[in-house]
Amino acid sequence: MTSPSQGIHQLLQAEKRAKDKLEEAKKRKEKRLKQAKEEARAEINRYRMRRDKEFRLKQSKVMGSQSSLSEEVEEQTLGKIKELNGSYTKYMEIVLKELLNTVCDVKPGIHVNYRAIH
Questions:
Q1: Can you tell me the distance from the alpha carbon of 87 to that of 93, in angstroms, rounded to the nearest whole number?
Q2: d(CA 49, CA 46)
């Protein structure tokens, strides 16, 4: 049979091998977790970049249409201003004459609603 010290020595060696296997398993697990985190970060970055690209595309479409709309509104406004200025210069003399004739041509008389109190 084996001596008691040899049995203890075998038990200690078995315990050391088990401890080494546990350490190795922990290291593999940590390595897999790090790898999974990196893959997740990469996937998140790809997703973020794709969504950001879609957003910028939509934003450029909207902003482009807004700028063309603002240009169109600006053109319409300038056209309306020119039209109003033309109308002003065309009718200014006529309206001024009518106004002066109405103000200066005073016809004295008794108002129709006036009642004399005696």
A1: 11
A2: 5
